[in-house]
Specification:
CATH topology of the largest domain: TIM Barrel
Radius of gyration: 30 Å
Largest sheet: 11 strands, mixed
Shape: elongated
CATH class of the largest domain: Alpha Beta
């Protein structure tokens, strides 16, 4: 787990690369980057520890060039920082002995973040303008792999390196890296540049979409990829990997004679960004911090088209961003009045994949979860409804669920399976609950519309009403008596093709539980 309070200390601008996007290499080339006095840094580190910071990131420039770097690292260990991130270009760490020295000081607290400015030698050295810099990084990665170190990689995306990113999966697999962070170049971090240099530096975002897709597809499922500050609308299908801003991080810069005042890292990084008015119609509006002003000057805003919930659904069929897909529904639920004795409805995004809806009353509340389709106590085309916590009264739970389903249908949501007494524990007999669970998990059934679920006999009998898309109708019944399961169906109309096929699917779902052996359907009959 990431420590909750983080501090970054920029140890000056001294750097032995001359990256096309970075102020530090420019300051070094101009002779303005100086060694940092170590005592003010050590004092700031003590203050950070006293304030409860547990994660430290040391960056530059190139932090390992600073004479006081090892003193800072030793003190961070003494002060009990749980995680110490060393952000390095790999020049000094190409020596195995230096890697061993840092491991001896910080041990398992170390996280190595390598500044790899291209996934190939050509791209990296074209960007760093430092011959041999890629080979030194490869040597560093080999040392870290051999010592089972926590290796992460960072790249600033510019015109000189973006086409190379498709080579990252193979490269990082070779060295056992755990994370890749790609960040869109920030013009304000580039130093003093001409308009021609900015044009050569900033890629058009739409040109990045194809190589980003290819790169993501090349990584194994679950590999930690972060794409920083790319507007979501450029490639909404990659939204699970895109991030704007981050966890609260305090940044301090050390250069020349002393230290800067601390600042909120991500608040400052928004200073040269803005969002066009049209972005307000985008489902990503709250997550996106917009586009850089310099980018707009170079390329305009025609690429930035609002993403609707329907458009997101089309590119996110697995529902990884279900909460955003349901954003229009969320707005309606916030103004919905539930039935008495509930007094208000509160809805919020629990995660990318889940909405939580709470019907609140003076004394009793019903909390529901809206997640991906399949199962639950009610189901719709794009999501399912699950009970998280319920009031003691089963009737009150049923009332809240029924009112919600009615409202959702009125807003155009297509019902797949309706709520019933099985929504509460003990509402139906155990074997009936199990069979209803199978049906809910497998619904919808091709050609059938599940209209109603009625329970009688104190939960000992359930009747499911179906109609088919070609005019057929049938009732399926499920029973339990003396712990024996029973069931059957009645065709209420002509046995139309869709009805016959749909009922066959229903019976198959009852016969075979997911992951279980086949079992006979008890007493199914016409």
């Amino acid at each position: 787990m990431e420590p909750s309070k983080q501090i970054e200390i920029q140890l000056g601008h001294l750097c032995n690369n001359r990256c096309v996007f970075c102020v530090s290499g420019q300051e070094t080339a101009l002779g303005r980057a100086l060694p940092v006095p170590v005592e003010p840094v050590l004092e700031r580190l003590r203050q950070a520890a006293a304030d409860g910071h547990k994660k430290l990131t040391l960056l530059g420039g190139e932090p390992t060039l600073q004479p006081g770097f090892l003193s800072v690292l030793r003190l961070a260990v003494e002060l009990g920082f749980e995680q110490i991130v060393v952000f390095t270009n790999g020049a000094k760490t190409a020596r195995a002995g230096y890697v061993e020295e840092l491991i001896a000081i910080a041990g398992p607290r170390l996280v190595w973040r390598l500044s790899l400015q291209g996934a190939t030698r050509e791209a990296h050295e074209r960007t760093t303008r430092k011959p041999g810099s890629f080979a030194r990084l490869e040597a560093t990665m080999e040392h870290l792999r051999a010592r089972h170190q926590h290796l992460t990689v960072n790249m600033c995306v510019v015109r000189s390196n973006y086409a190379s990113i498709t080579a990252f999966p193979r490269l990082l697999e070779r060295y056992g890296a755990r994370q890749l962070h790609l960040d869109m170049v920030r013009p304000m971090d580039a130093g003093q540049r001409t308009e021609e240099e900015y044009a050569d530096m900033l890629p058009r975002y739409s040109d990045l979409a194809a190589p980003l897709r290819e790169m993501i597809a090349g990584f194994p499922e679950g590999f930690d990829v972060n794409i920083g500050n790319l507007p979501y609308c450029i490639a909404p299908e990659l939204a699970p990997y895109i991030h704007h801003d981050g966890e609260l991080t305090e940044t301090v810069a050390a250069d020349g004679d002393g230290l800067s005042r601390p600042w909120d890292k991500y608040f400052v990084k928004r200073r040269d960004k803005f969002k066009p008015e049209s972005c307000q119609r985008c489902v990503f509006y709250e997550r996106c911090s917009g586009v850089f002003e310099k980018y707009e000057q170079l390329y305009g805003l025609t690429e930035l088209q609002p993403v609707s919930a329907a458009a997101l659904r089309a590119v996110d069929p697995r529902g990884r961003l279900l909460a955003l897909q349901l954003r229009p529904l969320t707005e309606r639920l916030r103004t919905w009045t539930p039935p008495a004795p509930f007094e208000e409805a509160r809805v919020w995004e629990a995660s990318d994949r889940e909405l939580l809806l709470e019907l609140r009353g003076a004394e009793q509340g019903l909390r529901l979860s809206l997640t991906s389709p399949g199962g639950g106590v009610a189901g719709f085309e794009h999501f399912s409804v699950h009970v998280v916590t319920a009031p003691p009264s089963a009737a009150l739970t049923q009332r809240g669920l029924s009112a919600l389903v009615e409202a959702l249908q009125g807003w155009g949501e297509a019902l797949v399976h309706p709520p019933g007494a099985d929504a509460v524990a003990g509402g139906v007999a155990r074997s009936i609950a199990a069979r209803l669970g199978r049906l809910r998990a497998r619904a919808p059934f091709t050609g059938l519309i599940w209209e109603r679920l009625d329970v009688s006999g104190d939960g000992a009998r359930a009747e499911l009403s179906f109609k088919s898309t070609d005019g057929g109708a049938a009732v399926l019944w499920l029973g339990e008596a003396q712990r024996q399961a029973s069931g059957g169906y009645r065709v209420l109309s002509e046995a139309t093709p869709a009805l016959v096929a749909g009922l066959g699917s229903v019976l198959q779902a009852l016969r075979v539980a997911p992951g279980a052996a086949r079992e006979p359907l008890s007493s199914a009959q016409k």
